[in-house]
Amino acid sequence: MNWDYGVDLHAIVEHVETAETFSIFFPMLRRALVVDMRHGPEEGPLVRVLPMARSPQERLRSLRRLRPYLPRATQMVAIPWPTYVINLVRSGVWARLAERISESGSEDAVRALEHGLKELERYESNELATLIRGDHYETIWSRSE
After folding, report:
1. 27, exposed or middle or buried, with CB in 10 Å at 0-12, 13-18, 19+?
2. Cystine design at 83: which of 5, 23, 24, 52 (Cβ 3.0–4.6 Å)?
3. Within a 10 A sphere around the Cβ of 52, how many other Cβ atoms?
4. Which residues of the chain have pLDDT under 50?
């Protein structure tokens, strides 16, 4: 299932269904949805929108700071999502992620995932408005008068 914008949905769904820690990152938004399926005795999986990390190793270090009481995570799957947030929903990837989070039994994680989608949509809306206004963007060519 390769879409025009170059993502392999089968591989993405496989990672979402099996990876212990993963990050779906949105280069246009400079944000990532970080998911850590590990859980402790008093806390379920972590689901949070964070600024994009420079590398999977940097993200692993940030997880260590966020969850110091858990064993050190050794792998982070980094999944680029180069298109709109709504396409994550339309593609079915979000449904698989929501199902996995729900199966964890953590209501907090389910709420965090719902909040994460709204937060990503808000970042995207703000970025598109910034683009339309021309804030933080420069014209690389202009019409001749």
Report:
1. exposed
2. 5
3. 16
4. 1-2
